């Protein structure tokens, strides 16, 4: 089995998984809509009390058994392999529409390079989204087929420093804009009355898991390639710090631009693909900024997609004994099929199901409910069926820290996740 060449590349890969579309367009909007600065309270609590302990548990399990996700479930309990496959399926479904959006970011990177301003409505009423989706699937598949050292490591070592460099440059520029202050006001002015609303807390917990890529076996898989002497809790804190940093910087950049150019603070795809390009069109050197912004978005999305791919590649290789190349090829074909309806829903075909676009449906079903359900399965399987000794040996935490992590993962996380899953289904 391959191993990460160093702890640094493992951390870069985990940051690559964490920092994604979720940080750059989801986090700023959720904050703006859910009480500004006040929302940061439930968000930090969810990150520190729920997501980080589960992250530590996942890495410990991964390194302890050095197995893929399905085999790890099998080792936790005799009949649990099927549950492992279910989690793989949820990850695959999330990946299928995540790659559609990755395709959009690639398309806009190409448009910015060519200097052709294409509106999102024109883009999404052509067949281009499908073509760029297929390219994204292929690129992800090729990187996965090259393996941990030759594929994932090389990509993240180059792309993650680049992501933070661009983010920093964009932030410095945005501070000089006249819209910086009103932007920060919208982004961070606290509205404490929002804290009494349960949906604000639910949004915070969901975003914490999604953003840190926790609860889908990514860190079990990545953790299985980790060397024995790497410090797990410290790695978890570093990964979390950089994920939070990326989210906060992205919020500063996005809202400074929106308020400087008097645009509507809109949500999701609307923001990245129509609002911000309009700002780029209005500013000096707008083309340079637009290239940088979409290069940032594409790199962040690609390194997240690769991590979801690796969960499935490792599971298929490990469980069926086929080579990495074959497992990757199989997944590329499968993903092209499963993702096609999502890609077509934002194309000239305008594919819908009961009036909603398939991609939006995927995001609320597997992306939100599915993710919290899979995190629930991971938390229960690995906490209840694993002894405290394993956790102690892998993490070297002090007694007090260990009992905190142990109790949080054993009780708080399952209860919180169960509540959100039920609340969201209703
Ligand atoms: N964390 C990624 C983001 O913020 C998404 C993701 C979720 C990636 C789960 C892998 C696993 O965009």
What is the secondary structure topology, with strand pairs?
Elements: H1 7-18, H2 21-33, H3 40-65, H4 69-76, H5 81-114, H6 120-123, H7 128-175, H8 180-188, H9 198-211, H10 218-223, H11 232-260, H12 268-282, H13 286-320, H14 324-345, E1 352-353, E2 356-357, H15 358-384, H16 388-395, H17 399-425
Antiparallel strand pairs: 1-2
Bound molecules: phenylalanine.
In short:
This protein is an all-alpha fold and 426 residues long.
Description of the molecule:
The protein has 426 residues and is mainly α. It is 79% helix and 1% strand. The protein has helices spanning 7-18, 21-33, 40-65, 69-76, 81-114, 120-123, 128-175, 180-188, 198-211, 218-223, 232-260, 268-282, 286-320, 324-345, 358-384, 388-395, 399-425, and strands spanning 352-353, 356-357. Strands 1-2 form a two-stranded antiparallel sheet. A hairpin with a 2-residue loop joins strand 1 and strand 2. The longest helix has 48 residues, at 128-175. 54% of the residues are buried. The model has no long low-confidence stretch (mean pLDDT 92). Bound molecules: phenylalanine (PHE).
Task: Supply the key terms.
single chain, 17 helices, binds phenylalanine, mainly alpha, two-stranded antiparallel ribbon, 426 residues, globular, 2 strands
Averaged pLDDT, please? 92
Low-confidence stretches: none
Count all strands and give the number.
Answer: 2
Q: What is the first-to-last residue Cα distance?
A: 43 Å
Shape: globular
Q: Give the helix/strand class.
A: mainly alpha
- DSSP summary: helix tally: 17
């Amino acid at each position: 089995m391959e191993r990460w060449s160093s702890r640094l590349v493992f951390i870069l890969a985990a940051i690559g998984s964490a920092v994604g579309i979720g940080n750059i367009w989801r986090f700023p909007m959720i904050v703006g809509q859910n009480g500004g600065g006040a929302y940061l309270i439930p968000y930090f609590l969810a990150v520190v009390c729920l997501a980080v302990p589960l992250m530590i548990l996942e890495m410990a399990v991964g390194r302890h058994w050095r197995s893929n996700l399905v085999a790890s479930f099998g080792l936790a309990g005799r009949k649990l392999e099927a549950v492992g496959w279910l989690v793989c399926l949820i990850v695959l479904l999330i990946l299928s529409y995540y790659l559609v959006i990755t395709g959009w970011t690639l398309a806009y990177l190409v448009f910015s390079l060519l200097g052709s301003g294409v509106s999102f409505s024109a883009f999404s009423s052509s067949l281009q989204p499908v073509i760029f989706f297929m390219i994204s699937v292929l690129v992800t598949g090729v990187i996965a087929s090259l393996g941990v050292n030759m594929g994932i490591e090389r990509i993240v070592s180059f792309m993650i420093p680049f992501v933070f460099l661009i983010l920093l440059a964009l932030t410095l520029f945005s501070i000089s804009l006249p819209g910086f202050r009103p932007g920060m006001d919208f982004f961070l002015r606290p509205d404490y009355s929002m804290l009494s609303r349960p949906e604000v807390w639910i949004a915070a917990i969901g975003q914490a898991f999604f953003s840190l890529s926790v609860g889908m076996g990514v860190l079990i898989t990545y953790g299985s390639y980790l060397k024995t002497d790497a410090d797990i809790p410290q790695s978890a804190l570093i990964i979390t710090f950089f994920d939070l940093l990326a989210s906060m910087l992205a919020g500063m950049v996005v809202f400074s631009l929106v308020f400087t150019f008097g645009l509507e603070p809109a949500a999701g795809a609307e923001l990245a693909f129509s609002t911000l390009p309009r700002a780029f069109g209005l500013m000096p050197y707008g083309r340079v900024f637009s290239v940088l912004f979409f290069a940032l978005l594409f790199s962040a999305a690609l390194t997240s997609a690769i991590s979801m791919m690796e969960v499935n590649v490792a599971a298929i290789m490990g469980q069926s004994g086929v080579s990495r190349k074959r497992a990757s090829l199989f997944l590329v074909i499968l993903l092209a099929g499963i993702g096609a309806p999502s890609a077509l829903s934002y194309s000239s075909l305008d594919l819908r199901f009961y009036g909603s676009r398939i991609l939006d449906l995927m995001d609320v079903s597997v992306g939100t409910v599915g993710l919290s359900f899979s995190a629930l399965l991971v938390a229960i399987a690995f906490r209840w069926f694993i002894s405290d000794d394993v956790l102690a040996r892998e993490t070297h935490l002090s007694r007090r820290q260990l009992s905190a992590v142990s109790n949080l993962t054993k009780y708080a996380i399952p209860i919180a996740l169960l509540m959100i899953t039920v609340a969201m289904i209703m």
